[in-house]
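Fold it.
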Amino acid sequence: MAYYLGIELNQREDGSFISQAGYAREILKKFRMDNSKSINTPVECGVKLSKHDEEEKSLHGRSTTIHLKIAKRILRYIKASSASVKLVVLGRQSSQRSWHGHAWIWLCLSGSVLFFAGGLTNAVRVIAMQRMERVTIDKLRGSA
């Protein structure tokens, strides 16, 4: 196992795995959210953020801002999903252009990275894509 830029690389006999679970634990601990309740969705449906939410706070008498609530919710979602989400690099198909007799299938994921208040907020889309890729791979394995 090795760590590079917060990414855990783990090579085993059954495959190679990439994860950010350790980095997620560090972030949760830093913001004292490591013992918080986890949730399955990053944001409630229909929530819209605005630059003017702070001004509206004084009119409605809210004690916290919408932005802070959403940031906490995203951290609670990261807590729920960080241990279960791993990008698996699979292989073992013979090919003339293989590495030691094994051709590797690489899964490439991309997405935008957004920061809010100095913290990463758009990891959600990448996590969802990783889950879809894993489900697709499992289905392909079953049909082979």
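Helices lie at 21-30, 53-60, 66-82, 123-143.
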